[in-house]
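Entry type: protein chain
Record version: 2
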Amino acid sequence: MTGVQRTGDGGPKRHSPAQLCHIVFYTRQFDAMVAWYCDVLGAYPVMRNDHIAFLTYDEEHHRVAIVRKDGLADRPADCTGFAHAAFGYGSLSTLAATYVRLKQRGIAPVWEINHGPTTSLYYEDPDRNRIELQVDNFDRLDKLNDWFATGAFDRNPIGVEIKFDDIVERLRGGEPERNILRPLQT
């Protein structure tokens, strides 16, 4: 049954959400933020006025909301709080095509990494919020759990930095995604 799970101790059932629906950003750079999220996520506004924009890229009525809030202070670097939001892609080829499209538009990732469970690109929006564009390295949860059981993630929980240009070239050269999508070891 979706959304229902037992606690680890056999206690009462908890009802979990079916999905994460949206994230909201307050900004002084309203137009730049709306344009950036539309560009990076391939999103479009389902509603927009001078103060708020609801953006989506699928059947959800909005995945990202941008709210104009003049007078906000900049968030200091290296502070506690929200670290990033991650958006998953169905294939490495799709993520690679997104990377190439964004690179051609002058939008470069700030971090390229194989985390083990995922191959990921991190980008910063105009307000320096980070988003992660990722693809799973495992096609099944049991395979991921088997990999976790090896202790590889415990030994290196961050992962291995990669050069996504190399991945793009390997894909263009005809190498199968399955050969590329795997955890990397240090």
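Comment: The first strand starts at residue 4 and ends at 6.
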